[in-house]
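This part of the workshop introduces the protein records we will be handling. Getting from the letters to the tokens is the skill we practise here. An example says more than a description, so a record of this kind follows:
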Amino acid sequence: MAETTTVTVADVELFKRKALHWANHFAVVCLLDSNAYTEDKYHTKDWVLAVDAADEITSGEKALPVVDVLSNHTMGNAPPFEQLHAFQQKCNTDIFGFFSYDLKNKIEKLSSRHTAKFDFPELYFFKPRYILQFKNGKLTVNRNYPETFELIELIQRLPLKHTVANPLQLRAGTTKEDYRKNVEQIKLQIASGDYYELNYCNEFYGEGVTINPLDVFFRLNEKARAPFSTFFKLHHNYLLCASPERFLKKEGSQIISQPIKGTIRKGVTEAENEQLKQQLKADEKERAENVMIVDLVRNDLARSAKPGTVQVEELFGIYEFAAVNQMISTVTAELEGGDDIAAIKHAFPMGSMTGAPKIEVMKNIDRYENFRRGLFSGSVGYITANGNFDFNVVIRSIIYNATSNYVSVPVGGAITFDSDAESEYREMRLKAEGMLQALNATITEE
């Protein structure tokens, strides 16, 4: 394994843009960008770019054969999290990858009835050939002299090419009227005691669409400045993500989950914004949504935690982002020990994107939604050699298949008994606004 070299770069932001242009020539790319967000007390990595798969593991319908690292044969139907654990032990270095929402079908007795529009597998992780990281303005590259400086020079020589974002017209997968009917039906099920809260999503999509994923990501990232932004390329599939939400982090023996439930727009002035933040914090419906998911997360973490260590560190915290304000709670626990990756399995999919109780609402999500979530409401992140990890929630995202020219903007929100269908629809459109602007897209009127 190559040593690392740390250097100073004159123009950090320009270098980052050029580095992603360079990386995009490879088949596999993962960029994780915190955008210098200062309110995350559990922040670890500023900016990390993982490029080219020296080794990889896939699982699911789109998976390649997986080789057992111990006996060198195809693993076949081995459980995906066991595969991942073996791969992580074998690599003994940082690995990067994602969990698709459809991985739920391997964790529980569930299914997905809709056709997948993307070729992302259910689980994918890779050992990068190149890792470039910025921390406190310093660039670290996993290469020795002189290769580090040759690589930096190559990146710095690259010209930046920009494309004009032609206007796009996207369609709503569910009409506004059908959306409202579904919300009312969900509320009836809640009133009947079938479940307490369901995360209901809609997809805005375009067919036969050509976009430049790099330029779209740059526009999205500049607007959102989100702490869990991600550019992930797997061959011809792209995830362009401006997520504000952490799914699960492990640091030493501690695990941390920070579910988001509660959204309100940003104010034009500081005084208006402060008023809106207080309005969000006092909103009984938003608080009810949040506390239901906090209870679910507490139960999820308890499955891996030492007895008595699950704590709600912060309840109903209000956090400001570039475009919206969010209500975020923080739940922590101490791990019991053993397989660290099992803690991810026990908490996946994240409760903020399902509802409660989790299994029952996932069955109904597939009933009400008319698209396959796939990587949306899954998770992207990294696992270190010593078993620490950090994963986001894949929301506020654009997903693009450059072969079929299909672009997807999925968004949604939690439905409870007190939900108003019109208000929920407006909130969903508010969440979609940043992605639509990055695409220069409008929605065909339903």
